[in-house]
Amino acid sequence: MATSAPVRASRSLKIPTRLDRRYLPVVGTFVVLALMLIVGGTRYENFLTPAVVSNLFINNAHLIVLAVGMTFVILTGGIDLSVGSVLALSTVVTAALLQAGLPPAVVIPLAVGAGTVIGLAHGVMVHYFQVQPFVATLAGMFFARGLCFLIAPESIAINNASFGELASWVQIFGGWRMSSGVLIALVVVGLGFLVLHFTRFGRTVYAIGGGEQSALLMGLPVARTKVLAYVVSGTCAGLGGLLFAMYSRSGYSLTGVAMELDAIAAVVIGGTLLTGGTGFVLGSVLGVLVLGLIQTIITFEGTLSSWWTKIVIGVLLLIFVALQRILTLRRT
Amino acid sequence: SDAGGEPAGGGETTGGGADDGVITLGFSQVGAESGWRAANTKSIQDTLTEENGFELKFSDAQQKQENQIQAIRSYITQGVDVIAFSPVVETGWDPVLQEAKAAGIPVILTDRAVDSSDETLYESFIGSDFVKEGEMAGEWVAEQYDGEGYKAVELQGTTGAAPAIDRKEGFESAIEGTDVEIIDSQTGNFTRAEGKTVMEGFLNKHDDIDLVFAHNDDMGLGAIEAIEAAGMVPGEDIKIVTIDAVKDGMQALADGKINYIVECNPLLGPDLADIAKKVIAGEEVEKRIVVQDEAFDQAAAKEALPTREY
Amino acid sequence: MTNILRHYLFWPVAALVALLVANTIARPSFLAISIRDGHLFGAPIDILRTTAPLLLVALGMTLVIATRGIDLSVGAVVAVSGAVALSHIASSPNPESPVTVLTAIGLALALCLVLGVWNGFLVSVLGIQPIIATLILMTAGRGVAMLITGGMITTINSAPFKVLGSGFWLGLPVAAIIAFGVFAVVAFVVRRTALGMLLEATGINPAASRLSGVRSKTLTWTVYTASGLFAGLAGLLISADTMAADANNAGVFIELDAILAVVIGGTALSGGKFNLSGTLVGALVIATLERTVTVLGISPLVTPLFMALVVIAVTLLQSPRMRERLTAATRRPVATTPPEPQPAARPDSTEVKA
Amino acid sequence: MTQQTAAAVVEMTGISVEFPPVKALDGVDFRLRPGEIHALMGENGAGKSTLIKALTGIHSPTAGTIVVDGVERRFTGPADARAHGVSTVYQEVNLCENLTVAENIMLGAEPRLLGGLHWSAMRRQAASHLERMGLNIDPASSLGSHSLAVQQLVAICRATVGDCKVLILDEPTSSLDTDEVAHLFTVMRTLRDEGVAILFVSHFLDQIYEVSDRMTVLRNGGLVGEYVTADLPAAELVQHMIGRSMEVLEAAEEVLEHTERPADATPLLQVVGLGRKGSVQPFDLELYEGEVVGLAGLLGSGRTELARLLTGADRADVGETRVAGAPARLRTPRAAMSHGIAYTSEDRKGEGVVDGLTVRENIVLALQARRGWIRPLPRKQVDDLVASYIKQLGIRPANPEALLRNLSGGNQQKVLLARWLATAPQLLVLDEPTRGIDVGAKAEIQKLVADLAAEGMSVVFISAELEEVLRISHRIAVMRDRRKVAEIDGGGATMDQVVDLIAGGGAK
Ligand SMILES: Nc1ncnc2c1ncn2[C@@H]1O[C@H](COP(=O)(O)OP(=O)(O)OP(=O)(O)O)[C@@H](O)[C@H]1O
Ligand SMILES: Nc1ncnc2c1ncn2[C@@H]1O[C@H](COP(=O)(O)OP(=O)(O)OP(=O)(O)O)[C@@H](O)[C@H]1O
Ligand SMILES: [Mg+2]
Ligand SMILES: [Mg+2]
Question: Which parts of the sequence belong to the ABC transporter domain (chain D) (predicted)?
């Protein structure tokens, strides 16, 4: 019975010589993004300039933060439809409280915290009541939007001086510009990356996406992790709202309608599977840049009617996804 | 995707001047959410043509402020001569307008105002006065029906949108002191379909509606459908007052199904062209240019209909 | 008792009844149906009619969801359908002729079928994730609709077409007859043939289904095509309702309503077992909810809050956890499974190894 | 009959678990002592897994007490159980395929650096755990890239990480070959000698007798008794388990029926140079009517992959296929099915069960898929078919409307078998069909296979249990390193002969 080890020697896995398959979609997105930048650069004057690239980040800082939070939720196999509304809620809260004369040091935690609380509610509904994430967060979406209207049906300008200072802080290096919003977004991306890859919480997020049942039977803290993923997303949406308030210096209850779709699209374009378990924050950032680039191209084109704008966005999206798909397929 | 394809030539890339006589104007439209908006866009595109000495860069923000801000930023980096836009929201434009100012590019607002403490950030604002429109509608109602104890329902525009807020405010202030009473008010999101569903609900709920005030023609047209389906005669059993005066609305007015329409003129192109030229030439322009809005009753509509442009 | 409580239709039906009761309290004659102009008239009839397009869209959505997919493009397809049909009628010399109207309907449905085929192609052949695949058409489709109408709202006068939206047959709204009829036929086909089971198998375990010889790709393709077609039909009903094709606003957010209807009806978004009867109740709940907002006179400012609370209440009550609690309360304690292991609704190994 | 040696570390008394209307456990007592290997025995569906799950808090019993280490406890779940020193490897592999092997082993007890995961230490520690299990794989590779058997071993590695007092192994050996099993037993014995209490479930009687000290037998959710292994002869054990005598087992002994095949017979399926890059080297194989061909090989030798190429589950890069003499392209399972070829995957959970459907639906799935959706099988025919298979294979509960996910592992396996038998194939490729099936049913299945062959069906039989392959096959193809290395006649072959071939021509 007991024959032993030596026969098994030949079976060790061969060292991967090529890129790990898991990185393929992200690399795919990156390649397509680079291609698009180059094509744009040859097609439009002033396109491939530091100013345009800087603006890509400045204009999308809030979306980057949303996408980071969304990545957590999608990695667990869930989805968060509320982020657009929560972002609006946070901008409205920021604007309304600043208008009421509270100092930013008080307002900012409240605005972000509003997102955290809603995220917590989502997590509890999804995990403890087993409401499907899509529905729980859809309800959250209506709820946050409703709160926006209650707080401020009309748009509110932000005139607070110290908030304005914070918002308009810009660092310039040559043609490159970095706003406070971008800086915060990059910090969030860095944190997101660290948390996902270097904490047990992060790895459990992946484990749940790979199989919730398995994660549970492995004795991983599924409940806590799942709830926390929604809390992260809610908090990111709150922070995104703050960034948007800094970006637009106002609070408006109709902000961010359908922005959740942008965030989800960014995450998925960045190579994360909606079924959960595979994907990277950095991919999501690339996804945001892809969407931003599409907008930029549209503006540079400058001749598109409203309907061609929509069609071209769709077509560019298709090209991105299809190219990424082809790049991924051919390697497997 | 052809015209913009060639690398842009000549002097259009540097801001400030229009040495070659052609004015490059970057226009950021709100979106294409209604027929009114489409007419507005068309007017601008038809006026700011090469024959008229313009090169128009147009972009559609799809109702998103962030798209609009990014479009304006992009116009600044592209170095257009003039920037014009219809803001999605009133607030939040200071930073980007400051950037435009710093780059020496004049800005003109159309259709909707911005809420800014610094009036020097833009040259001029061309557009209707939404409060005034609501007032005109309300005044007509007060004049016609005061003393008859009319019960009115209101079909509001998109919750939170400036025209909806202002028109409601204007209408309410105008009927104050009369015995016209608004018994119900609900949003119809400026669309015909929702106008119809909401009106159906009102008809289920109230037996005694005398008047509908709709924030735009489309919702009014939807209400007409609902009223007819309930076996009543729009314009007779239930009076209808709306704002906009788009073609379908005017037709319904002429047909007697609507009783009064306050115009909201979308043809801002000529005014915009005019102001842009003046601004480039360094002439003084008025800060606020209120577009002439007419109002039509049924007789006036029959007369005006054949010659309406939109 | 317990069995009724456990039934997947219990809470959706309870929600529907609760809404009707709330309406009746606010407006005692709410449920009254009278006869006007030779047809039935009243709030319940209106609700049936306004449910019609949503029901069609939700029907297609249910099938798509059964295969673990989602179709975000239905709203855009609704817009395209209306745009095509009305543009054709508007440009024809004889808008009142039934031939014109039938051609318009045929054209619209054919194009929507093609759009459905396109979605199916992206999902089943290219293997793009459904949410993104259909997001493409969701964006571009509206553009196409606007391209067709030139960005204006196309309005027509055509009696035969108007029948689709506001006509009555045997005293009932034609729109409702069409939608409920299509629904019944599809439900019959799905449940009387093996289609339903094969769809469910595909949704639950694609890999196992493939090995069992189920044509998963073809089935997936078929459901997206069907979804496109039903959305197209819904688009016709919607545009006939107001006799206008509004490329920008027709069917906006109908995908969310449809998904909500499916979920309220007890079908899990993770695919597999689906309940068409649940979807029917779900669609009625949503249409009634919209009507309730008006009848209760809820201010537009709090409407979203109200909707959120209703949705939260319904979904919490019918959540597996809550059902367990309720059944546990009505019988002696039994082995309960903690919340975690249940999501077996989402089988763990999900990827098809192609 | 039990002697009190040491204080029990786990003591379960009067445990009942219900899944209305099924009473899965009814007042069962169970005791586990430190430093023993305790086998839990019973037929499929007897309640073994349920007892384990009741202990670790996945199911909460309706009655009974659980005392762990002298303290009465109701664990809230596996995490809680683990925290109290109870580690479990559940019946199906329950790991995350998307994570690396190292993470699967170490998560929960991961080494840390500055508050974050210490990846290199994690890989190092994982590697040492793997080594102990005799596994030589890259800890940084993703788990999904490994075969089920490897995954099973990884799951066991995970359970032995950290300080566990109680180690529970629910059918860990069902997909392992002798070699791996031997390794596992070495590890188990070491742990036992360190004082760990080990609960072990297996349907292999020889393994039970080899490794266990004591056993508890369950039948139909009830306790039959606790025995000292050495004192209980196998025949008696079987009797306790199935409530009948040993005869069933003996019946299977002489199943093999050697009919001479005519020299000029056309093979039912003939493949020449069939292969796929990165999976199996090109091989030739002929399968004849009425013949059972066994595939023997070590874990990972490519048996499964060969089977998948034969049946269109994977697409071959090179080679030709002939069905009944005519060239055929088997590019999909569906195409293979249309030629009467059926394949049951070894991966029950991933590629076999449709767990949200009922037993009935699972059984008719393949048959219905072949007919197409338009022509549903008449309900009467379905019911008869399902009823007959439930009876023939002894599927329990005998309720066609039960959801498959609520069946015990072994019963799920039987349902899968029924699915394929229902299609009445000409060639049936069975990849580990007896995995997790109890002794009685296993004998039934072997007999069934022999009968089917006698009726003219051609069968390819893969099993980790070499003995079973030898017993049942007319011919045996031996695989090594993803290559078919030999083909021998089943009748004359001896165990040693095959083991030599498998191991590389008598390396030792
Ligand atoms: N979640 C559940 N819902 C309903 N019934 C269940 C559930 N889990 C198990 N059962 C039933 O409980 C009984 C015992 O199952 P269990 O899995 O414990 O058997 P087992 O002894 O482990 O069998 P096997 O050897 O096949 O693994 C079976 O009849 C099974 O159908
Ligand atoms: N010990 C191992 N080390 C590395 N990889 C392995 C090992 N065992 C199996 N594999 C991988 O798993 C796959 C197993 O191949 P396959 O399942 O065809 O083998 P098998 O002979 O059927 O083995 P099993 O007994 O697991 O069914 C191979 O692709 C191989 O890469
Ligand atoms: Mg078991
Ligand atoms: Mg195998």
Answer: 10-245, 260-506
